[in-house]
Amino acid sequence: MKKLGLSLVAALFVSAAVQPAMAAKAKKAAAPKAEKPRGPAPVAKAEAISEIRGDYKWGMKAQDVINLINGRVEATYKDKLAASAADPARNDKLRKQMRDETSKTGKNMVKFDGQKGPWDVSIIDQEIVQSQGMSMLFVKEPKSTRYFFFKDDSLFKMFIAFDKEMLAGKGFKDFGDMMQGKFGKAQEVWVNQSYLGVKERKLDHLLWRSSTGDSLKLVDRSEFYDVYCLVLADASVDGRLMAARKEAEANQPRGDMLDNITTAKPSDRDENDNVIDRITGTQILKPGERRSAEQNIKVPSPTQPAKSRDLDE
Fold it and tell me: Is this structure's pTM higher than 0.90?
């Protein structure tokens, strides 16, 4: 079959929009219960915390973070621009590429002002708190995608989703052991959950703290997104926001999340991040943006016409 019928396109669109929301609703209905940790989490190695933090500091304004990111982009062009100084046409082309790349950074900012949207069923869904002055900026790094969270335009959290290649096929326990070799012994946080009457005890995340008031978590997001993530945060600010989220969830009628997600406007996320792009194959997804069942799907280059091998056959 060479052409996809209109009804099938509609069915795919609805399925892509509704299934994540249904999964989120199911998770909410059968939320796992975390076991109470025994005492405070161990203190992580200071040099390892510093490496994860990099040049970013709590309290930085969003524009300061954008300027820092763009400064790094510009640094990657420094040698190329110097080498092309005698070739004005090539030099101008490189400068335009650099400007185009840096101009996109600020467009990756999202505000969580109370309107539910696709981010609420994304890899960062558990970090989002609506209507509390929270905003988020994301940027692709060489081996990960980093999400910056702000409270009233003040940086307080970084969420780092590792590229799948970084995991090297390791299970969460094995990857956690590797991270403990870097950060030091962690506190294991287990949860008890039940699905269709079957009870299970599962390792949910590893937890550290710093001597300066930070919290550091390694979280398993492989069930839906096939990745593991590090979350570094100012523990006091993050704690207050998570308490506000818990209170809001307790007061939220069942069904509201599904209704809001399925009616959300594409503008809730950046212009290249909507459902239509995923269906047509014109968007190459960022780490954690496709579910594990879809990991082997090959996405065509944006410069080529989208095709579905199964449908063409």
Answer: no
